[in-house]
Protein: ABC transporter ATP-binding protein
Organism: Paenibacillus montanisoli
Amino acid sequence: MNPALAADQLKYGYDRSAPIVNGFNLTVATGEWLGIVGPNGSGKSTVLRMLARLAAPHSGKIEMEGLDMADLDNKTIARTMTMLTQTQEGALDISVRDLVRRGRNPHLKWYEECRGKHEDVVDWALSVTSMAGLQHRSLVELSGGERQRAWLSMCMAQTPRILLLDEPTTYLDIAHQLELMELIRGLNRNQGITVVMVLHDLNQAARFCDRIVAMMNGAIVRQGTPGDVFKVDFFREVFGIEAKVYDDDGVPVYLPNGIVSKQPHEASA
Ligand SMILES: Nc1ncnc2c1ncn2[C@@H]1O[C@H](COP(=O)(O)OP(=O)(O)OP(=O)(O)O)[C@@H](O)[C@H]1O
């Protein structure tokens, strides 16, 4: 089976003379939940944006389910993959259901309206994200957590096989963070959706992700299961902190203890 995503030798820079990401390779297996972690500015969002084709690599290639993304049109990509960001822009004075209907756009012909079987998919998307009860409410009337779930519901209406998320829990309180992560776990385990998520909360990454990729200065510096990656020397070398790492039933849990005197980005100075 082709991997969900395969990135080969990606290069990208906002200023072309100084690449932010260089020689980046990544394979995401179908059905896995991959977490991308790393310090601020290490290039995580840039990589995710390239995977979602929101940014075009200056060189290198990305394949989605074995097909070169450069050869695919936006609609084809949107039928397979969708991205949820930490905050969403756009009009808020529409109902949840109308927002979720927008997720059907990649599946509709230009003259077609969201009806019949498409409305069935909207019902399904509302139901798997527990938004059916709020579908007639306007987005402005929702809490931050409910609103984030409404956007996820729209993503689900696209019936994607691959879901990319960029720090989707940033503005949520801990209960809503866990609720969203549990919801995504259900989509991953029950619907078989491949998940690639950038996240800062390393304890949540350890608890939910199958595999971790850690980035520094635009490159992958560690990868493996959470237990393989989240060790004392990882926190020292990648984040510049001293941490204690405990085992909670096979899941690593870290507790920060202090800052390492010389930060990783100063190591060569
Ligand atoms: N639009 C932009 N123009 C110029 N430089 C940018 C732009 N967006 C990001 N950068 C720079 O690219 C580098 C990587 O940024 P990116 O957002 O990918 O990092 P990140 O790991 O996602 O960071 P964070 O954890 O802070 O969200 C940073 O040095 C950042 O300053």
